[in-house]
Amino acid sequence: MFNFKNKIDRKYFVIELIFFVFICFISPIISDLEFSYYEQNNVLRFAESVEARLVWGTYSFAFYTIYYWVFLKGYVFKKRIFPIIISICFFIILSHLYDKYIMNYTISKFSFLSDEMQARALKDFNKTKLYFIISYILNRILFTIVGFAFLIRSLQQDEQMSVLNEQKLISELAYLKAQLQPHFFFNTLNNIYALALKKSDNTAPLVAKLSEMMRYILYKSESKLVLLESEINFIENYIEVERVRYPCLIKIDFEFQGIDSYSQIGPLLLLPFIENAFKHGVQEETKEGFVHLLICKMESELIMELSNSISSKKANDFVGIGLINVRKRLDIQYPNRYNLEQINNGKVYQMRLTLLLG
Protein backbone atom coordinates (compact mmCIF):
# COMPACT_ATOMS: atom_id res chain seq x y z
CA MET A 1 0.00 0.00 0.00
CA PHE A 2 1.27 3.47 -0.84
CA ASN A 3 2.44 5.52 2.14
CA PHE A 4 0.61 8.80 1.56
CA LYS A 5 2.27 11.04 4.14
CA ASN A 6 5.86 10.01 3.55
CA LYS A 7 5.98 9.32 -0.17
CA ILE A 8 3.97 12.00 -1.97
CA ASP A 9 5.96 15.01 -2.89
CA ARG A 10 4.01 18.21 -2.39
CA LYS A 11 4.61 19.52 -5.87
CA TYR A 12 3.36 16.35 -7.51
CA PHE A 13 0.50 16.10 -5.05
CA VAL A 14 -0.76 19.46 -6.33
CA ILE A 15 -0.34 18.30 -9.94
CA GLU A 16 -2.28 15.12 -9.16
CA LEU A 17 -5.09 17.08 -7.51
CA ILE A 18 -5.37 19.33 -10.56
CA PHE A 19 -5.44 16.26 -12.82
CA PHE A 20 -8.35 14.66 -10.94
CA VAL A 21 -10.24 17.95 -10.74
CA PHE A 22 -9.89 18.19 -14.50
CA ILE A 23 -11.12 14.69 -15.36
CA CYS A 24 -13.92 14.73 -12.75
CA PHE A 25 -15.26 18.26 -13.16
CA ILE A 26 -13.75 20.36 -15.93
CA SER A 27 -13.69 17.78 -18.73
CA PRO A 28 -17.38 16.75 -18.29
CA ILE A 29 -18.48 20.40 -18.19
CA ILE A 30 -16.51 21.11 -21.36
CA SER A 31 -18.19 18.09 -22.96
CA ASP A 32 -21.62 19.50 -22.00
CA LEU A 33 -20.69 22.87 -23.43
CA GLU A 34 -19.75 21.29 -26.74
CA PHE A 35 -22.95 19.22 -26.81
CA SER A 36 -25.09 22.28 -26.07
CA TYR A 37 -23.37 24.29 -28.77
CA TYR A 38 -23.22 21.71 -31.57
CA GLU A 39 -26.27 19.50 -30.91
CA GLN A 40 -28.73 21.75 -29.08
CA ASN A 41 -27.68 24.98 -30.81
CA ASN A 42 -27.80 26.82 -27.50
CA VAL A 43 -24.59 26.95 -25.50
CA LEU A 44 -26.41 28.14 -22.37
CA ARG A 45 -28.28 24.86 -22.04
CA PHE A 46 -25.18 23.27 -20.55
CA ALA A 47 -26.27 24.94 -17.28
CA GLU A 48 -29.08 22.38 -17.01
CA SER A 49 -26.54 19.66 -16.29
CA VAL A 50 -24.13 21.63 -14.06
CA GLU A 51 -25.69 20.36 -10.83
CA ALA A 52 -25.42 16.74 -11.94
CA ARG A 53 -21.84 17.21 -13.16
CA LEU A 54 -20.76 18.74 -9.86
CA VAL A 55 -22.42 16.04 -7.75
CA TRP A 56 -21.28 13.10 -9.90
CA GLY A 57 -17.85 14.69 -10.19
CA THR A 58 -17.54 14.85 -6.40
CA TYR A 59 -18.34 11.15 -6.04
CA SER A 60 -15.97 10.26 -8.90
CA PHE A 61 -13.23 12.42 -7.41
CA ALA A 62 -13.47 10.61 -4.08
CA PHE A 63 -13.43 7.15 -5.68
CA TYR A 64 -10.67 7.85 -8.23
CA THR A 65 -8.30 9.54 -5.79
CA ILE A 66 -8.64 6.78 -3.20
CA TYR A 67 -7.91 4.18 -5.86
CA TYR A 68 -4.98 6.19 -7.23
CA TRP A 69 -3.21 7.08 -3.96
CA VAL A 70 -4.03 4.04 -1.87
CA PHE A 71 -3.48 1.34 -4.49
CA LEU A 72 -2.45 2.25 -8.04
CA LYS A 73 0.38 4.71 -7.46
CA GLY A 74 2.16 2.40 -5.02
CA TYR A 75 1.97 -0.51 -7.46
CA VAL A 76 3.16 1.63 -10.37
CA PHE A 77 6.12 3.04 -8.44
CA LYS A 78 7.15 -0.46 -7.39
CA LYS A 79 6.65 -1.81 -10.95
CA ARG A 80 4.23 -4.48 -9.72
CA ILE A 81 2.45 -5.28 -12.96
CA PHE A 82 0.26 -8.14 -11.71
CA PRO A 83 -1.22 -6.10 -8.81
CA ILE A 84 -1.86 -3.26 -11.27
CA ILE A 85 -3.91 -5.60 -13.49
CA ILE A 86 -5.79 -6.99 -10.48
CA SER A 87 -6.51 -3.47 -9.21
CA ILE A 88 -7.89 -2.51 -12.63
CA CYS A 89 -10.26 -5.47 -12.56
CA PHE A 90 -11.45 -4.57 -9.08
CA PHE A 91 -11.79 -0.94 -10.12
CA ILE A 92 -14.21 -1.88 -12.92
CA ILE A 93 -16.38 -3.97 -10.60
CA LEU A 94 -16.28 -1.68 -7.57
CA SER A 95 -16.86 1.51 -9.56
CA HIS A 96 -20.15 0.14 -10.89
CA LEU A 97 -21.23 -1.04 -7.42
CA TYR A 98 -20.16 2.30 -5.98
CA ASP A 99 -22.12 4.29 -8.56
CA LYS A 100 -25.31 2.19 -8.33
CA TYR A 101 -25.61 1.62 -4.60
CA ILE A 102 -23.54 4.18 -2.68
CA MET A 103 -23.78 7.20 -4.98
CA ASN A 104 -27.41 6.76 -6.05
CA TYR A 105 -28.61 5.92 -2.57
CA THR A 106 -26.97 8.90 -0.86
CA ILE A 107 -27.98 11.33 -3.62
CA SER A 108 -31.61 10.22 -3.26
CA LYS A 109 -31.43 11.14 0.44
CA PHE A 110 -29.87 14.60 0.04
CA SER A 111 -32.75 17.03 0.39
CA PHE A 112 -30.65 20.03 -0.71
CA LEU A 113 -30.43 18.58 -4.24
CA SER A 114 -33.12 19.12 -6.85
CA ASP A 115 -36.16 16.82 -6.88
CA GLU A 116 -35.31 15.78 -10.42
CA MET A 117 -31.85 14.62 -9.47
CA GLN A 118 -33.05 12.79 -6.35
CA ALA A 119 -35.72 11.01 -8.36
CA ARG A 120 -33.24 9.97 -11.05
CA ALA A 121 -30.81 8.62 -8.44
CA LEU A 122 -33.59 6.65 -6.70
CA LYS A 123 -34.73 5.20 -10.02
CA ASP A 124 -31.21 4.03 -10.88
CA PHE A 125 -30.78 2.61 -7.38
CA ASN A 126 -33.97 0.52 -7.66
CA LYS A 127 -33.06 -1.04 -11.00
CA THR A 128 -32.73 -4.79 -10.65
CA LYS A 129 -30.00 -5.17 -13.26
CA LEU A 130 -26.43 -3.94 -12.98
CA TYR A 131 -24.80 -3.12 -16.30
CA PHE A 132 -21.00 -3.14 -16.64
CA ILE A 133 -19.83 -0.62 -19.21
CA ILE A 134 -16.27 -1.87 -19.46
CA SER A 135 -15.18 -0.15 -22.67
CA TYR A 136 -15.95 3.36 -21.41
CA ILE A 137 -14.31 2.75 -18.03
CA LEU A 138 -11.17 1.36 -19.65
CA ASN A 139 -10.73 3.88 -22.44
CA ARG A 140 -11.92 7.10 -20.80
CA ILE A 141 -10.98 6.55 -17.16
CA LEU A 142 -8.63 3.71 -16.31
CA PHE A 143 -6.11 4.05 -19.14
CA THR A 144 -5.97 7.80 -18.45
CA ILE A 145 -5.36 7.34 -14.71
CA VAL A 146 -2.85 4.50 -15.15
CA GLY A 147 -0.99 6.43 -17.84
CA PHE A 148 -0.91 9.48 -15.58
CA ALA A 149 0.50 7.38 -12.73
CA PHE A 150 3.35 6.15 -14.95
CA LEU A 151 4.00 9.73 -16.09
CA ILE A 152 4.25 10.97 -12.49
CA ARG A 153 6.56 8.06 -11.66
CA SER A 154 8.82 8.95 -14.58
CA LEU A 155 8.89 12.66 -13.67
CA GLN A 156 9.64 11.98 -10.01
CA GLN A 157 12.40 9.52 -10.83
CA ASP A 158 13.96 12.01 -13.25
CA GLU A 159 13.84 14.68 -10.57
CA GLN A 160 15.31 12.36 -7.96
CA MET A 161 18.12 11.45 -10.33
CA SER A 162 18.71 15.13 -10.99
CA VAL A 163 18.91 15.84 -7.25
CA LEU A 164 21.26 12.89 -6.70
CA ASN A 165 23.49 14.02 -9.56
CA GLU A 166 23.54 17.54 -8.17
CA GLN A 167 24.45 16.24 -4.71
CA LYS A 168 27.18 14.14 -6.28
CA LEU A 169 28.57 17.17 -8.10
CA ILE A 170 28.46 19.21 -4.89
CA SER A 171 30.33 16.45 -3.06
CA GLU A 172 32.93 16.23 -5.82
CA LEU A 173 33.38 20.00 -5.80
CA ALA A 174 33.78 20.00 -2.02
CA TYR A 175 36.37 17.23 -2.30
CA LEU A 176 38.32 19.09 -4.98
CA LYS A 177 38.25 22.30 -2.96
CA ALA A 178 39.38 20.40 0.13
CA GLN A 179 42.38 19.16 -1.85
CA LEU A 180 43.14 22.62 -3.17
CA GLN A 181 43.15 24.49 0.14
CA PRO A 182 45.83 22.42 1.95
CA HIS A 183 47.82 22.45 -1.27
CA PHE A 184 47.65 26.26 -1.41
CA PHE A 185 48.45 26.80 2.27
CA PHE A 186 51.29 24.27 2.20
CA ASN A 187 53.01 26.20 -0.58
CA THR A 188 52.43 29.60 1.05
CA LEU A 189 53.65 28.44 4.47
CA ASN A 190 56.78 27.12 2.82
CA ASN A 191 57.31 30.58 1.38
CA ILE A 192 56.90 32.20 4.79
CA TYR A 193 59.29 29.67 6.31
CA ALA A 194 61.92 30.47 3.70
CA LEU A 195 61.62 34.21 4.38
CA ALA A 196 61.71 33.67 8.14
CA LEU A 197 64.97 31.74 7.83
CA LYS A 198 66.44 34.76 6.03
CA LYS A 199 65.00 37.05 8.73
CA SER A 200 63.38 39.06 5.95
CA ASP A 201 61.41 42.21 6.73
CA ASN A 202 58.82 40.91 4.28
CA THR A 203 57.81 38.05 6.59
CA ALA A 204 55.23 40.08 8.56
CA PRO A 205 53.50 41.58 5.46
CA LEU A 206 53.37 38.12 3.96
CA VAL A 207 51.70 36.71 7.08
CA ALA A 208 49.16 39.58 6.99
CA LYS A 209 48.32 38.86 3.37
CA LEU A 210 48.04 35.15 4.09
CA SER A 211 45.64 35.91 6.94
CA GLU A 212 43.43 37.93 4.60
CA MET A 213 43.46 35.15 2.01
CA MET A 214 42.67 32.53 4.66
CA ARG A 215 39.65 34.59 5.70
CA TYR A 216 38.43 34.63 2.11
CA ILE A 217 38.92 30.88 1.71
CA LEU A 218 37.20 30.05 5.00
CA TYR A 219 34.13 32.19 4.34
CA LYS A 220 33.80 32.10 0.56
CA SER A 221 35.21 28.85 -0.79
CA GLU A 222 32.24 26.77 0.40
CA SER A 223 29.88 28.82 -1.76
CA LYS A 224 28.98 27.52 -5.18
CA LEU A 225 29.60 30.95 -6.68
CA VAL A 226 31.32 34.13 -5.51
CA LEU A 227 31.52 37.61 -6.97
CA LEU A 228 34.11 37.80 -9.72
CA GLU A 229 35.25 41.08 -8.20
CA SER A 230 36.04 39.31 -4.90
CA GLU A 231 37.91 36.57 -6.72
CA ILE A 232 40.03 39.16 -8.54
CA ASN A 233 40.85 40.86 -5.21
CA PHE A 234 41.96 37.49 -3.86
CA ILE A 235 44.19 36.94 -6.90
CA GLU A 236 45.68 40.41 -6.42
CA ASN A 237 46.56 39.54 -2.83
CA TYR A 238 48.12 36.28 -3.97
CA ILE A 239 50.24 38.05 -6.57
CA GLU A 240 51.33 40.65 -3.99
CA VAL A 241 52.51 37.79 -1.81
CA GLU A 242 54.54 36.45 -4.71
CA ARG A 243 56.00 39.90 -5.40
CA VAL A 244 57.35 39.93 -1.87
CA ARG A 245 59.04 36.58 -2.36
CA TYR A 246 60.75 37.17 -5.69
CA PRO A 247 63.55 39.60 -6.60
CA CYS A 248 63.03 42.46 -9.01
CA LEU A 249 64.57 40.44 -11.85
CA ILE A 250 61.38 38.37 -11.92
CA LYS A 251 58.84 40.32 -13.93
CA ILE A 252 55.26 39.93 -12.75
CA ASP A 253 52.48 41.58 -14.75
CA PHE A 254 48.82 41.41 -13.82
CA GLU A 255 46.08 43.21 -15.73
CA PHE A 256 42.32 42.92 -15.53
CA GLN A 257 39.65 44.52 -17.70
CA GLY A 258 35.88 44.80 -17.65
CA ILE A 259 35.45 43.34 -14.15
CA ASP A 260 32.01 44.37 -12.86
CA SER A 261 30.41 44.15 -9.43
CA TYR A 262 27.71 41.56 -10.20
CA SER A 263 29.25 38.70 -12.24
CA GLN A 264 29.91 35.44 -10.38
CA ILE A 265 32.39 32.60 -10.70
CA GLY A 266 33.30 29.40 -8.90
CA PRO A 267 35.56 30.26 -5.92
CA LEU A 268 39.31 29.64 -6.32
CA LEU A 269 38.74 28.43 -9.86
CA LEU A 270 41.50 30.50 -11.46
CA LEU A 271 44.05 30.27 -8.65
CA PRO A 272 45.59 26.86 -9.56
CA PHE A 273 46.77 28.18 -12.95
CA ILE A 274 48.40 31.20 -11.34
CA GLU A 275 49.88 29.19 -8.48
CA ASN A 276 51.26 26.67 -10.95
CA ALA A 277 52.92 29.48 -12.92
CA PHE A 278 54.88 30.65 -9.88
CA LYS A 279 55.63 27.22 -8.46
CA HIS A 280 56.91 25.63 -11.66
CA GLY A 281 57.82 28.71 -13.64
CA VAL A 282 59.99 31.02 -11.59
CA GLN A 283 60.49 29.49 -8.19
CA GLU A 284 63.92 28.08 -8.97
CA GLU A 285 65.05 30.59 -11.58
CA THR A 286 68.40 32.14 -10.77
CA LYS A 287 68.23 34.65 -13.60
CA GLU A 288 65.30 36.38 -15.25
CA GLY A 289 61.81 34.98 -15.26
CA PHE A 290 58.32 36.27 -15.85
CA VAL A 291 54.63 35.74 -15.19
CA HIS A 292 52.15 37.62 -17.38
CA LEU A 293 48.47 37.45 -16.47
CA LEU A 294 45.44 39.04 -18.14
CA ILE A 295 41.85 38.55 -16.98
CA CYS A 296 39.19 40.16 -19.13
CA LYS A 297 35.38 40.02 -19.02
CA MET A 298 33.36 40.80 -22.12
CA GLU A 299 29.58 40.52 -21.72
CA SER A 300 28.99 37.02 -20.26
CA GLU A 301 32.40 35.65 -21.30
CA LEU A 302 35.50 35.62 -19.12
CA ILE A 303 38.91 35.25 -20.72
CA MET A 304 42.07 34.47 -18.81
CA GLU A 305 45.44 34.51 -20.57
CA LEU A 306 48.57 33.41 -18.71
CA SER A 307 52.14 32.97 -19.82
CA ASN A 308 55.25 32.31 -17.77
CA SER A 309 58.81 31.19 -18.09
CA ILE A 310 59.58 27.60 -17.15
CA SER A 311 62.35 26.65 -14.80
CA SER A 312 64.80 24.26 -16.43
CA LYS A 313 64.43 21.94 -13.43
CA LYS A 314 60.64 21.90 -13.87
CA ALA A 315 60.40 21.64 -17.65
CA ASN A 316 59.17 18.04 -17.55
CA ASP A 317 57.08 18.37 -14.39
CA PHE A 318 54.51 21.06 -14.99
CA VAL A 319 51.22 19.48 -13.91
CA GLY A 320 50.39 19.48 -10.21
CA ILE A 321 47.36 18.59 -8.09
CA GLY A 322 45.93 22.07 -8.62
CA LEU A 323 45.76 21.84 -12.43
CA ILE A 324 44.31 18.33 -12.36
CA ASN A 325 41.62 19.44 -9.93
CA VAL A 326 40.74 22.62 -11.76
CA ARG A 327 40.05 20.65 -14.95
CA LYS A 328 37.71 18.40 -13.00
CA ARG A 329 36.00 21.42 -11.47
CA LEU A 330 35.54 23.00 -14.89
CA ASP A 331 33.99 19.78 -16.20
CA ILE A 332 31.62 19.63 -13.24
CA GLN A 333 30.67 23.27 -12.79
CA TYR A 334 30.94 24.55 -16.38
CA PRO A 335 30.19 21.58 -18.67
CA ASN A 336 30.35 22.59 -22.34
CA ARG A 337 30.79 26.19 -21.22
CA TYR A 338 34.56 26.52 -21.23
CA ASN A 339 37.53 26.16 -23.54
CA LEU A 340 41.07 25.61 -22.27
CA GLU A 341 44.09 25.91 -24.53
CA GLN A 342 47.61 25.17 -23.26
CA ILE A 343 51.01 25.32 -24.95
CA ASN A 344 54.26 24.22 -23.34
CA ASN A 345 57.43 24.31 -25.44
CA GLY A 346 59.72 23.57 -22.51
CA LYS A 347 60.72 27.22 -22.06
CA VAL A 348 57.44 29.09 -21.97
CA TYR A 349 54.02 27.97 -20.79
CA GLN A 350 50.96 29.65 -22.27
CA MET A 351 47.30 29.06 -21.48
CA ARG A 352 44.02 30.67 -22.47
CA LEU A 353 40.80 29.90 -20.63
CA THR A 354 37.49 31.08 -22.05
CA LEU A 355 34.60 30.69 -19.65
CA LEU A 356 30.88 31.37 -20.14
CA LEU A 357 29.77 32.71 -16.78
CA GLY A 358 26.02 32.88 -17.08
UniProtKB/TrEMBL annotation:
UniProt EC number: 2.7.13.3
InterPro entries: Bact_2-comp_sensor_kinase (IPR050640), Sig_transdc_His_kin_internal (IPR010559)
One matching Pfam family: His_kinase
Molecular function (Gene Ontology), one example: protein histidine kinase activity
Statement: the UniProt record of this protein carries the keyword Protease: no
UniProt keyword terms in alphabetical order: Kinase, Membrane, Transferase, Transmembrane, Transmembrane helix
Positions of the Signal transduction histidine kinase internal region domain: 172-246
Transmembrane portions of the chain: 12-30, 50-69, 81-98, 130-152
Listed name of the protein: Sensor histidine kinase
Species in which this protein is naturally found: Pedobacter jamesrossensis
Lineage start: Bacteria, Pseudomonadati, Bacteroidota, Sphingobacteriia, Sphingobacteriales
